[in-house]
Design goal:
About 50% of the residues lie in helices and about 20% in strands. The chain has about 110 residues and is of the alpha+beta class. The protein has one domain: GMP Synthetase, Chain A, domain 3 (2-Layer Sandwich), CATH 3.30.300. The chain has a three-stranded mixed β-sheet with strand order 1-2-3, with helices on one face. Strand 1 and strand 2 form a beta hairpin. The protein starts with a helix and ends with a strand. The relative contact order is 0.15.
């Protein structure tokens, strides 16, 4: 069992290294991949006091979004998240975003 686990770990490291090299060779940069999402959120929440898009894994498809805006005040957490999903509907539909974590806060 230990030999199998060791080989599995080596295989995972090798795959991660290959994917990372391919991403850099393709010109991937974290700021470039998050900017289109940031633009969509800035259009949807022009009053945002805090707006952040984080590429969680470096692969360009797992993101965390943080939005703090007065327009979210008074809305339930479900409604706040629904507004973020509406803003990012296109990248969610075309597969650009595979995983999305959302943190929202309404300010009075």
């Amino acid at each position: 069992m230990r030999v199998y686990q060791f080989r599995h770990i080596r295989w995972r490291r090798k795959c991660s290294a290959v994917l990372l090299r391919r991403a850099y060779a393709a010109g991937y940069h974290r700021l470039v991949s998050t900017q289109p999402l940031r633009d969509l959120l800035e259009q949807a929440f022009p009053d945002a006091t805090e707006l952040d898009v984080i590429d969680r894994t470096g692969g360009g498809d797992h993101f965390q979004v943080v939005v703090t805006a007065p327009s979210l005040g008074g809305l339930s957490l479900v409604e706040q998240h629904r507004r973020v999903y509406e803003a990012l509907a296109t990248p969610l539909a075309d597969g650009t975003i595979h995983e999305l974590r959302i943190k929202t806060k309404g300010t009075p």
